[in-house]
């Protein structure tokens, strides 16, 4: 019996052993297999005390009730279920997924810096001190450049120059300088030593600016220039060039040939008082606007005061680019590379290449540090969930330097690169108004859409498409929700655009390295230059300085002669249903200077201040210009008020330009466009629509 049973027992034991081996092999500790096993209907229940009821072929003890999902599925057409299942399988990607990695081109060349480091600094502590030395050298060189750029020598007799931005000017928009311009005094007998940055020809005025009956927009605001007219200042100001006080100072200095646009410069300007007849010209790449009347606040540039100071943004950029490139080719550590690059990018942008408009460097440094700390949090999230995947185990040193680091510098230099695209603000008003904005926007959207499709395909190949579809669905849903909020406007700044697009670059391939570096640079530029501007803004914040769409005064001319003109201003108060405001006053600009401000009487019959004849009229007398044959420097040209002056030369009557706006208390609404009182005493009505 034993002899006969022994072979059977051995066969039985071998079969059991084989079965145990198959079971052990099937349930080995592997994540993918565990997931597949959990998805299998025959998988054993783990961590449960209840037996499995997934298979109950005899239906013992209970009847099977269809679940609501089964009942819902029965109502869906089979072709639709099949299409949905195919879509889900396609979105989930291939099995196994394809994980992107970069194999260096010419590996011996790209690995040469690493081999050099292994040879001369093989120990970790040696590399640590080399990194500290690199940081110290960059900080020293960058600080010396900043010091030379910010603390220029004093101009003899005028002191240290004030740091101006490209948009600095004396005169404010509309009625901002107050009645007769008193808030913007002095008008003459004053000088200012100034310092201008480079590339001020790129500074454009973004909202329409009125110059008499003209409107200037999307170009540098420069009114006036060199003139052949006798001013009495020919021997004191450069090129006899006189500019209106609302002109950009630095662009005017370039236009006059006083400083270089490519390097900036220092010098002294002088206020030249009231001047007439501003000539238009194009000099040094900047076109100025003419103005055939007078303006109370003007300036020119003093001969012999130009100082040897330059905008050193390009040397500062060269220093930072050199040190970041050196670090890039000698390190494979993603954290060292990312954070070192981020910090150097940020402070180079904030202090040198595109600093905010502040007048001294201590304030500039304080603002930069204040913006840096919250920017670090955004950078940590970007590194943790996006950049680390791209940079981890990457040994293509020169490709990383060229694609990621090079693109990051391009993005950080947004003021020199993408600012050339004719889209200054991503608002419907600006896109419609700015020349070339619509085709540029179409091209940008097409490029972004094409890149998004390519990146989505990469997500599918890596098997990560479902989770990123969910993420971007949340992004889109949030944007749609913010668009629906009443009383607020959505404004996607370029730092927000960078944060939205960065998650889509979390691959280790060459195109993703390029896009990721570019977006990190754009984020750095947006925060370092402009700060964390809100994603949602009120119309007043979004269109600050722009036309408001308010009710415009209906103006009539009661009488006009060579010496005086009387206007009928209508009745006050006036209710503006669109703006939901009651207007109780009116402001009048003459030659873009506020010359009258009045409020309707409580009975609606006259001015509160007693001016006019009680029927809401206003009279203006001709403002004639006289000048002495040889005035002292800065002597203010004065108006002829009718008094005789045998020593004065009376100029021919000049045209004058009138604009009118309602007021609600101290708040001024939109001004009308300019009507012209000609030198011959005739009135030319204003065109319909508002102005600034």
From TrEMBL:
UniProt cross-references to Pfam families, sorted A to Z: LCCL
InterPro entries: CRISP-LCCL_domain (IPR051957), LCCL (IPR004043), LCCL_sf (IPR036609)
LCCL domain segment(s): 236-289
Record key words, sorted: Membrane, Transmembrane, Transmembrane helix
Transmembrane segments: 128-146, 312-330, 335-352, 364-383, 437-457, 469-492, 513-532, 552-572
Positions of the UniProt region annotated as Disordered: 1-58
Gene3D superfamilies: LCCL-like domain
Annotated protein name in UniProt: LCCL domain-containing protein
